[in-house]
TrEMBL record:
InterPro entries hit by this protein: rRNA_ssu_MeTfrase_G, SAM-dependent_MTases_sf
Protein name per the record: Ribosomal RNA small subunit methyltransferase G
Biological role stated in the UniProt entry: Specifically methylates the N7 position of a guanine in 16S rRNA.
Main location group: cytoplasm
Family classification: Belongs to the methyltransferase superfamily. RNA methyltransferase RsmG family.
Keywords: Cytoplasm, Methyltransferase, rRNA processing, S-adenosyl-L-methionine, Transferase
Organism: Micromonospora jinlongensis
KW Hydrolase (keyword) present: no
Length: 282
């Protein structure tokens, strides 16, 4: 992961949950055909009718709040370079529902740390779908944390969501006067290969906590390649979990790793000369 030179304190916003726009909105074909291709439109975030049952299952009575976030992704997120313009019409199937399905692997009332949160995927989606969770969005880049802070405030999620500007290792060890943080569950989506991701994420999990890494077709191959590294980092055997089976198609592929052991930083071995010197002094 990369980060800016300046690290700010964790930021929270005002509480309260304002009502969002209607989740399912008709698309104005005429307006769509006349607007410039480069101009993002709220219509891009409209929930396709065929996905409405899955969205209702995953978000329940917070579906309008999910729709408000989808609209922010399709407009401000595109303008600010956090979501590609071609992704805007696919926000619900490729992003919102894909992330929300992971909630089934998270225990009730858990604390969740979302590493490399970017535009808030999956952390903000999980906070919307599961109001019982306490979520910290960990993101090093200033323009992304600015967007996250604004979204948290606009959606009224500050009682359960905070934004930490910095790298994962800074969050785990503490920096700039901030205390280290840890959580029951660490999530990550499209951040890094499994070995590096485990190195960044497992130190953030409490013992017995877990890493949930959203992966694609590479999941099994990454497990085979990096299982030994994961074990050295204190992780248990990685497993592949399919989330949202029977609700979304295809289901979300998640690599799950339990933190079984607390592994500290490696210490350099003392040289023979040093050990001999200590013996002579005694």
């Amino acid at each position: 992961m990369t980060h800016d030179d300046i690290t700010a304190d964790a930021v929270t916003g005002p509480g309260g949950t304002p009502p969002g726009p209607s989740a399912v909105q008709p698309t104005d074909a005429d307006a769509e055909s006349t607007r410039p291709d480069s101009a993002p439109s709220p219509a891009d975030a409209a929930l396709p009718p065929e996905l409405a049952p899955a969205a209702l299952t995953l978000f329940g009575d917070r579906l309008d709040l999910a729709a408000a976030y989808a609209e922010l992704l399709a407009t401000d997120g595109v303008v600010r370079g956090l979501i590609g313009p071609r992704e805007a019409p696919r926000i619900w199937d490729r992003h919102m529902l894909n992330c929300a399905a992971v909630a089934e692997r998270i225990p009730s009332g858990a604390t969740v740390l979302d590493v490399g949160s970017g535009a808030g995927l999956p952390g903000l989606v999980l906070a919307i779908a599961r109001p019982d969770l306490t979520v910290t969005l960990i993101e090093p880049l200033a323009r992304r944390t600015s967007f996250l802070i604004e979204v948290v405030e606009r959606l009224g999620l500050a009682k359960s969501v905070r934004v930490f500007r910095g790298r994962a290792d800074e969050a785990a060890t503490g920096s700039s006067g901030r205390d280290p943080i840890s959580g029951d569950v660490v999530t990550a989506r499209a951040v890094a290969p499994l070995d590096r991701l485990a190195g960044w994420s497992l130190p953030l999990a409490v013992r017995g906590g877990r890493l949930l890494a959203l992966k694609g077709s590479s999941a099994a191959a990454e497990i085979e390649e990096h299982a030994e590294v994961v074990a050295r980092l204190g992780g248990g055997e990685p497993t592949v979990q399919l989330c949202g089976v029977g609700v979304i198609d295809p289901p979300t592929t998640v690599v799950e790793i339990v933190r079984e052991r607390m592994v500290g930083p490696a210490r350099p071995a003392a040289s023979k000369r040093s050990r001999a010197g200590r013996s002579r002094r005694r």
